[in-house]
What does this fold into?
Amino acid sequence: MMMTALKQAHLRISRLDRTVITAVVLLSSVFPVELFPNTPPAQKGLDGQYSGKQGQVLVVKVQGEEQATEVKGTFLKRTIPFFREFRPGEPAGYIGLLGIDMQDDPGTYELAVEVKQGEQAKQLSFNVLVAKEKFAVEHLKLPKEKVDLDEKAVSRWKAEQEQVKQALEENSRLKLWHSNFVEPVNGKRTGIFGSVRIMNGQPRNPHNGEDIGAPMGADVAATNDGIVRITVDHIFSGRGVFVDHGLGFYSMYFHLSEILVQDGDLVTAGQIIGKVGATGRATGPHLHWGVKLNGARVNPYSLLDLPFKNGAVPANSIATPIPDTTSVPEAVPVKQ
Ligand SMILES: [Zn+2]
It folds into this structure.
């Protein structure tokens, strides 16, 4: 009985397939232009290929001697502004910083770049291969009240998220940063960027920055030039500073004991903007350093690796991550 029904269904499908195929073939012979208006679309990624892991920053270059009106990329619905870059002995061109979010699914995606020159626009297409990063898994035990939030805490957290979202909508359209990135604090890097967090047995949002262990009151420096977009005192991040470096690049510094800047201040690379603390949800003094690049949460240490200064990699290269089980829990509740 069952078999017969399945067989009939199968037959119906293949009959339908045949009908559709026949219809397409017939139609295309009658209306070839309407059904296939163009030659098949060009293969994606004709202009080059990039690859990187989740949480990494890629430097994408578009060559061109002429001054363009605007060069803009789109990658996974995020907009990547490009800027003109001159380097001695290298062909002129435009550079974009492409952030791979720590939760972008592995795979190959298109980076479409539009180069506008007055009325004319040229389209370029790159393939970007996103590879999986092996993030740590952290099991954390915390006092119950720090993990299970009451209604009041949840609504406070939501309001704070909204406040940050609104503040970060306003990007400086000027590129304020330069090639010399500064590590914000001298301390022990815990290597837990992107780690999956299980708090008291419950899964939480992954850790969206890097924690650097440092003594209470240690100086915290801005990683580059920028404008202080907002300073906060929030339930999880504690006292925090958000610096806008322009073109969609933000850096953030959390759990501070003291904030030494105000909203709207201009800061320079290496300027002391606060002191290490343990405010918010933190079990001990440390700096949570986060970076957002056009909406993507990237490993802040990938900035120190960027090959900018006359094509040279800064001496301040990436450290080997040290897994730390005593790390610092300030992750926010799972997205709803
Ligand atoms: Zn952290």
Notes: The longest helix spans residues 2-30.
